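Hi team,

Filling in the usual template for the complex we talked about on Friday. All components are listed, including any nucleic acid strands or ligand strings, so the model treats them as one assembly.

SUBMITTER: L.P.
PURPOSE: interface mapping
COMPONENTS: two
RESIDUES: 231
SEQUENCES:
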Amino acid sequence: AQKITQTQPGMFVQEKEAVTLDCTYDTSDPSYGLFWYKQPSSGEMIFLIYQGSYDQQNATEGRYSLNFQKARKSANLVISASQLGDSAMYFCAMREGISSGSARQLTFGSGTQLTVLP
Amino acid sequence: AAGVIQSPRHLIKEKRETATLKCYPIPRHDTVYWYQQGPGQDPQFLISFYEKMQSDKGSIPDRFSAQQFSDYHSELNMSSLELGDSALYFCASRLRGRGETQYFGPGTRLLVL
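RESULT (copied from the run log):
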């Protein structure tokens, strides 16, 4: 079964508007972390935001916020006031076994290609 | 702030050749991860190291090996290269016990002809 599901292969948004990128996950581990990364066409993988499963509040980082709904197992990324430079592939990822302190790896979703229109 | 350094950034090899990719983690980071991202794919975990010891192993072919050295840099050695090994190879680093985030390097783009 897919651990991370991103159902939107492509999304379009008008410049200055907000956009939500969907991510659902599947784990039986009570201790996990959810991440969003941005990958521009140049290829680098840029960390955007992190949410731990025990965090009480939704994470925010500047124009990025994570809408974490634990019971629904969803961790949607909200980008406010979209800019042309936001056009990129966006990956949702999960790391299980947070509380064990192990070096567990990230599992990625298939990504959403976001295009910001002028 | 210093980031993860990977070299080379681009590499072209022939089938059956060998390749060595290098990764220099963020200073004081003790954990290194290697990922492979094929064209149009999401990154797939290959292998990780913590304090110079192999920690976890993912879908790494037997033709590949890796190690982490005393200065914490890591090398991914790839032998008998195949066309399907053409991909973007990322190294990521993390400081265990100081947050969960893995910071990625710029990647090495390997093309096997």
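MY TAKE: The interface with chain B takes residues 33, 35, 37, 43-47, 50, 52, 91, 95, 98, 101-111 of chain A (CB under 8 Å). Chain A is about 0% helix and 50% strand.

Thanks, L.
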